[in-house]
Amino acid sequence: MDIEAVKGFLLGLQDRIVARLTDLDGKVFLRDAWERPQGGGGVTRLLEDGGVFERAGVGFSHVFGPGLPPSASAARPELAGRSFQALGLSLVLHPRNPHVPTVHLNVRFFVAEKSGAAPAWWFGGGMDLTPYYLATQDAVHFHRTCRAALMPFGTDLYPRFKKWCDGYFYLKHRQEPRGIGGIFFDDLNQPDFDTCFRLMQSVGEHFLPAYIPIVERRLDMAYGERERAFQACRRGRYVEFNLVYDRGTLFGLQSGGRTESILMSLPPVVSWRYDWKPEPGSAEARLYTELLVAKDWAD
Length: 299
Fold this sequence. Notes:
By secondary structure, the protein is α+β, with helices and mostly antiparallel strands.
């Protein structure tokens, strides 16, 4: 187990992603280094009101403390009360153009320790896409890139992690998925540290190839007030998921993390419209009938 190697990779990945997004957008990211009074800290990189991104947040954190928060030990109650270290890179990009999807990436590493016992460690993460308008080509590209990230580690992983993603990014109270999914995994500690670390690295390194071609294809598509209103409405679903279900958000808040950095994933412009439904046959309705349904996009 090499915590410093994980930290070095995550900081390097943050730099590479921010550099590429800066080239694409044209606006420089704010760099905000912060410390957590209970232990640890991080580096938040944020862009707002850019040429491409209305908000783009890419955050690194390395926090530690005497006891795991409930959100981190819920699936493994035997680890409750152990001291912990948590390292992660998390990003959410909210483009201005409604034809460009919102995207999320997270890769993370946990260690839970107790005197007299072997350390428990695991990796987690994934990426998922949240489009507003139908673009089958984008869904296929994103999922095939996700599959390519996992292929060196076994042909069974993509179907398993895709299903996990579909189940995780689901708004139970609305009975609808947040987007078209991608891949998601957690509690990964087999067969060994080196293999799990390489898998996490592969997921992180495949993010830019998965997302940037989609942005470049959709960036100059025309839109108006109707499309922006629909985008704001659908962004409301994103907020609901992050505040009600997202384990990363809950972990950050429960562990006393930096609120501004935790909530930078929320979109800057959002709306809720009472009992709104799209007009049948409209471009907005096609999101529900053709994208927000379970499909084997990679095939």
